[in-house]
Amino acid sequence: MPAPLFRVSVLALCAAAFVPAGTAQEVRSRPVGFLTVTIPAGQTRSFSIPFDADVSSLPHAVGRLTAVGANYLENSAAAWTPGAFSSAASPYFVRLINGPHAGRILRISATANTATRLYVSDDGVGLASLGLVVGENGTAFEIFPGDTLATFFGTAGGGSTLVVQGGATPQQADLVHVWSGASWLNFYYNTAWNRWALDTDAAGDATRNHYLLRPDRGLMLSRRAAAPLTLSVVGRVLGTPQRAAHARTANALTFLATMQPRDISLGNLALQASSRTVAWRGGPDAASADLVLVWSGASWLRFYFNDVAGTWQLSDDPTNRNNYLVRAGTPVFIQRRTAGSTADDKTVAFPQPGT
What we know:
The chain is an all-beta fold. The chain has 3 domains: 16-33 and 52-147, no CATH class; 156-234, no CATH class; 241-355, no CATH class. The chain is 3% helix and 33% strand. It has 2 helices and 27 strands. A 7-stranded antiparallel β-sheet has the order 5-11-8-9-10-7-6, with no helix packed on it. The longest helix is centred in the middle third of the chain and has 5 residues, at 149-153. It is globular, with a radius of gyration of 20 Å. It starts with 15 loop residues before the first strand and ends in a 6-residue tail after the last strand.
């Protein structure tokens, strides 16, 4: 079992990020952030990690693109071990770190990487449409590890520590809720089967230990234990805006991590700005506008940008909510009323941390 990438209640992470410059590599320090979230007993909270994991320690984890295909990124100077980045138990991501798409991440897929090629999942944005620069001065990238249910929340035994309450049934255990794009998937650690499971699984079903927890997505956690659960994480503060892919079929919901390590107001998120999203739809009421949904601890608060008043408002309250704070590490649902087809249409750019 690989060690957790973001340690829960254990603080250990390197601050350095390696950024290629030309054919050489220079080391640039990125700030390290720390966040603690508490889920009270008997309650449900939204949660995301507002930091990057450290760059992979495997060789050639930073570089520049020399070719881009329909489903792959290539660096001809790399000498990767084939398959090293393609295991479901130890997932990896590529983050683009310069150019107009700086901050976008791509999951390295289960198709085994070669010595110079990474096969990636593009969330439907279309790699060819990104216009990534290739060659000696190509788009820079870094490879970093991702987390699974087992690596982040742990398991019972085998040298791992389970940080949530498990149970023989879903009713006895803490639940981790992951948005599938259409419904909630409810995971728990089954102490009779000694593995992570869906609440609908039977004993003969496959383990869910390796279910991927995407760093650009949010989670919900329901605490069933009698004591509160405290999650403490550290990581590298982003050096770019978070550019997250989101669904652009009409009225689809995407649960996104904003990657903000400190509280930020709706006014400063400014999702209605053209630099954040393409054609954000404001309106005189929530029924006609794109929405940002934030979990209050008890219900979903539905915010929209009133383009007549020029302010963010709640769906049932005309009060100016520009100063409403989205707390550090809090993910948000994005709901767009109309469809979009291009990579830019399907991208939300959150503010660069520290701006």
